[in-house]
């Protein structure tokens, strides 16, 4: 009886922990299937987490707060697109620049507005995502429903066909008379919205308010899940669940105190490294990923 | 033209079209017309502006000045979308396909509405089946492009264009990677399209194809039209002269071979994609290897050069070679001009002078006090550039800044000027124009006559027959047979390349 309850608790915890990872990994999936590497998930989540909590706290509405998080994510995505799609900058550098800028900017803005040492005020029940059914909140349901929806969009619609094509061979898309840049911007819009929501989950569902560094590397973990899931929706979801399960197990193991707590705490990250090393460079990576689209000069 | 009464209005007319890239004037005021329902050729050397011109017509680049008229009406074509709307389709030299997707997905990519695909795909299948019937092309629509052969991929490109209802189809160097058989099939399909009223434009630098396929031909040199004639009124020699601007020797002139000592002897050599290969190469002869691309010839060449591992007997100057790595083979006197020179033979980011010493950087002549002497490296490159007529002759110019043909010459100069005992060379004239071909042939024969040996892999049968002293044929990774060039008809070679054994190989 005792073990059964423990396992159920573990699974429930894993689903909760997987939600922000999954939202962020799906955000990354849209960008990367269109050929844009997104290392800026961490920064977008942090900004989304703050914007969501701040707007909710000021307006008193959870939905306006979520909208704030979405728009913040989109603004950062457009910035990333402006640097990498319009001006063909290095995608990795632009992504890291967003992360570094947000890590510094967000606590500063938080301090300037709320003067609470880089935090937002505690959020009340009306300003948070509360559990609606089966012990889970609306964002969790949204995240897991987004998986089949993404699969349908990518593989069953003309838009998805073009999105995948532009990540594999933008020349084919251009010569077919389609706009490469517009398609990539469309992917980035979806990317920004999902990454912003991933952040909102942290500050408005898992916690009641924003605190410094609350993303704690989850944006990078989401990228690892995306790679492990070979840029496909369902495998990516499974990878998120695996990482989240390791995290939940780690939290429970901490209470048992058989192993040094530092070692137990490092388990999910060790697992990530192992998984990525074993998976290697297997297929699935969009071929044009990371390469800015430049029309070659005709011979 | 098959039907003179079809229409007097040309399908396509260019009026004083111009395009510059920075300081380079790629297209300088080009005007010509293409008659409806005809096959029109455009020839010229590398860098003559053919591809740029067609990219302008297709809207991939925007013209600086001039007019493009389709069916007598001036069109403002600024994107491929505009071109397709005007009824112009293009098959690029490098196929514009998404490899992990199916044939059908590639074809509907440009037209499918954003929503559900299922209906679109069903309707497209019906239309494509009709088009395949009309053209004689046949493709499995649900196969992944990555699994198709090169010839089939080209058919995907052609169908992709026809699916958009184009009336004018442009093909850029369509035969550069095709087998003779696929080339024939392509030409048949193009003739059928013409007879059904479509207009075909073919860009090529292969003169033989112009005379065989086209009704009319426009010759370009240095961004300008230097000739526009009915194909029946010219021959290959005349076309070559128009292209290069001076008479060109198309025939290879060489004396009989004087084979000497055996340099290279393979006995049962096995490696990636080839197995149990035995033959020898002697001083003073050119040995050719024929085969359809992908039958192990390239890997064999790479294995001899030490770039791929191999097992079995490999003897050099009478002694078995134990250490088969590239540096060792090179030091032993084997030079290698790889088939894909742009990938395997050059560092695009390097200055030409650095590309010109790759792998030969330990030469004491290039060093002073144990360090590379920049001055010696530069002088070395200047000398190679002069001998091989590389343009522009600037050793500091980055490798990627040279045209394809000139990049080839840089590699050829590096590998041929070190007086190797044996030169391994894959596809020596791929992507090279007539003037340069004449030059490369002369150098190969010169190397042979000075007592060197050449092992030549080529997919161009004419080239093998005219250059090689002996022709070996490979199929499915095995050596199928050997022919003397005078016995090597296209039919016999073609059969053997298809795997039909004629006689056992004398090792």
User: How many β-strand stretches of chain A?
Assistant: 2
Extract low-pLDDT stretches of chain A: none
Q: What's the count of strands of chain B?
A: 22
Q: Biggest sheet of chain A: strands side by side, in what order? A: 1-2
- Coarse morphology of chain B: globular
Terminus-to-terminus distance of chain A: 74 Å
Biggest interface, chains and residues, is: A-B, 23 and 40 residues
The helix fraction of chain A, in percent, is over 70%
The general outline of chain A is: globular
Biggest sheet record of chain B: 6 strands, mixed
Query: What is the end-to-end distance of chain B?
Result: 53 Å
Name the beta content range of chain B: 25-35%
Biggest β-sheet: strands ordered side by side in the sheet of chain B: 6-7-8-3-9-10
**Largest sheet geometry of chain A:** 2 strands, antiparallel
**Global Rg of chain B:** 24 Å
Order of helices and strands of chain A: HHHHEEHHHHHHH
Keywords:
A: 299 residues; mainly alpha; ABC transporter involved in vitamin B12 uptake, BtuC; B: 507 residues; alpha/beta; six-stranded mixed β-sheet; 17 helices; 33% helix
What is the topological layout?
The complex is a heterodimer of chains A (299) and B (507).
Chain A: H1 2-33, H2 41-59, H3 62-86, H4 91-114, E1 131-133, E2 136-137, H5 138-156, H6 158-168, H7 170-175, H8 180-206, H9 218-228, H10 233-256, H11 261-279
Antiparallel strand pairs in A: 1-2
Helix pairs in contact in A: 1-5, 1-8, 1-9, 1-10, 2-3, 2-4, 2-8, 2-9, 3-4, 3-8, 5-6, 9-10, 9-11, 10-11
Chain B: E1 12-21, E2 24-34, E3 39-44, H1 50-57, E4 65-70, E5 73-75, H2 80-85, E6 88-91, H3 103-108, H4 118-135, H5 150-163, E7 168-172, H6 180-195, E8 199-204, H7 207-213, E9 216-221, E10 224-230, H8 236-244, E11 262-271, E12 274-282, E13 286-290, H9 297-304, E14 310-316, E15 319-320, H10 326-331, E16 334-337, H11 341-344, H12 352-355, E17 367-368, E18 371-372, H13 374-388, H14 404-416, E19 422-426, H15 434-449, E20 453-458, H16 461-467, E21 470-475, E22 478-483, H17 490-497
Helix pairs in contact in B: 13-14, 14-15
């Amino acid at each position: 009886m005792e073990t059964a309850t423990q396992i159920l608790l573990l699974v429930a915890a894993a689903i909760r922990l997987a939600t922000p990872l999954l939202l962020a990994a799906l955000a990354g999936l849209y960008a990367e299937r269109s050929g844009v590497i997104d290392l800026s998930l961490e920064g977008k989540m942090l900004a989304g987490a703050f914007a969501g909590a701040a707007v909710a706290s000021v307006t008193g509405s959870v939905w306006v707060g979520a909208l704030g998080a979405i728009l913040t994510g989109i603004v950062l995505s457009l910035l990333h697109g402006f640097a990498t799609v319009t001006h063909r900058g290095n995608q990795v550098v632009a992504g890291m620049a967003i992360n570094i800028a947000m890590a510094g900017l967000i606590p500063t803005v938080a301090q300037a507005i709320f003067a609470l040492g880089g935090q937002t005020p505690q959020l009340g029940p009306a300003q948070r995502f509360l559990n609606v059914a089966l012990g889970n909140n609306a964002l969790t349901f949204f995240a897991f429903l987004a998986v089949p929806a993404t699969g349908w969009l990518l593989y069953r619609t003309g838009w998805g066909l073009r999105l995948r094509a532009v990540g594999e061979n933008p020349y084919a898309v251009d010569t077919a008379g389609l706009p490469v840049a517009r398609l990539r911007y469309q992917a980035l819009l979806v990317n920004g919205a999902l990454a912003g929501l991933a952040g909102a989950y942290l500050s408005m569902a898992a916690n009641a308010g924003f605190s410094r560094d609350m993303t704690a590397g989850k944006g990078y973990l989401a990228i690892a899940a995306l790679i492990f899931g070979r840029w496909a929706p369902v495998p990516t979801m499974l990878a998120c669940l695996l990482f989240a399960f390791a995290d939940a197990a780690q939290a429970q193991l901490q209470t048992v105190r058989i192993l040094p707590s530092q070692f137990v705490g490092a388990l999910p990250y060790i697992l990530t490294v192992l998984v990525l090393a074993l998976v290697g460079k297997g297929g699935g990576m969009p071929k044009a990923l990371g390469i800015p689209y430049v029309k070659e000069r005709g011979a | 033209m098959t039907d003179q009464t079809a229409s007097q209005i040309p399908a396509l007319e260019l009026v004083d079209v111009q395009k510059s890239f920075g300081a380079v004037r790629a297209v300088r005021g080009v005007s010509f017309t293409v008659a409806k329902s005809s096959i029109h050729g455009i020839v010229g050397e590398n860098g003559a502006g053919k591809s740029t011109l067609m990219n302008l017509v297709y809207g991939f680049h925007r013209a600086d000045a001039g007019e493009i008229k389709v069916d007598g009406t001036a069109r403002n074509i600024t994107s491929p979308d505009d071109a397709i709307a005007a009824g112009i389709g293009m098959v690029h030299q490098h196929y514009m396909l998404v490899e992990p997707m199916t044939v059908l997905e590639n074809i509907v990519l440009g037209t499918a509405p954003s929503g559900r695909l299922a209906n679109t795909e069903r309707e497209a299948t019906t239309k494509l089946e009709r088009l395949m019937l009309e053209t004689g092309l046949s493709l499995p629509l649900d196969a992944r492009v990555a699994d198709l052969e090169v010839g089939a991929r080209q058919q995907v490109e052609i169908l992709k264009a026809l699916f958009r209802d184009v009336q004018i189809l442009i093909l850029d160097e369509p035969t550069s990677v095709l087998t003779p058989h696929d080339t024939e099939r392509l030409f048949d399909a193009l003739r059928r399209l013409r007879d059904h009223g479509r207009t075909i434009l073919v860009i090529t630098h292969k003169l033989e194809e112009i005379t065989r396929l086209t009704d009319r031909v426009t010759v370009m040199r240095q961004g300008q039209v230097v000739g526009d004639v009915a194909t029946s009124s010219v021959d290959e020699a005349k076309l070559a002269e128009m292209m290069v601007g001076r008479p060109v020797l198309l025939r290879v002139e060489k004396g009989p071979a004087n084979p000497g000592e055996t340099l290279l002897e393979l006995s049962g050599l096995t490696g990636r994609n080839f197995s149990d290969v035995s033959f020898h190469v002697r001083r003073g002869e050119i040995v050719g290897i024929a085969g359809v691309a992908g039958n192990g010839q390239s890997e064999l060449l790479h294995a001899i050069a030490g770039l791929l591992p191999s097992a079995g007997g490999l003897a050099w100057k009478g002694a078995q070679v134990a250490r088969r790595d590239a540096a060792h083979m090179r030091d032993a006197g084997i030079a290698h001009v790889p088939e894909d020179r742009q990938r395997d033979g050059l560092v695009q980011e390097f200055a030409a002078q650095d590309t010109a010493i790759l792998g030969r950087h330990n030469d004491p002549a290039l060093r002073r006090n144990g360090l590379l002497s920049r001055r010696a490296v530069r002088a070395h490159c200047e000398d190679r550039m002069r001998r091989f007529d590389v343009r522009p002759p600037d050793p500091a110019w980055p490798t990627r800044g040279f045209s394809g043909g000139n990049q080839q010459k840089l590699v050829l100069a590096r590998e041929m000027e070190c007086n190797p005992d044996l030169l391994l060379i894959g596809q020596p004239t791929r992507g090279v124009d007539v003037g340069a071909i004449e030059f490369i042939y002369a150098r190969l024969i010169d190397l042979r006559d000075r007592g060197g040996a050449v092992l030549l892999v080529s997919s161009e049968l004419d080239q093998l027959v005219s250059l090689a002293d002996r022709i070996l044929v490979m199929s499915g990774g095995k050596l199928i047979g050997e022919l003397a060039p005078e016995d090597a008809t296209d039919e016999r070679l073609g059969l053997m390349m298809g795997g039909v054994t004629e006689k056992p190989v004398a090792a």
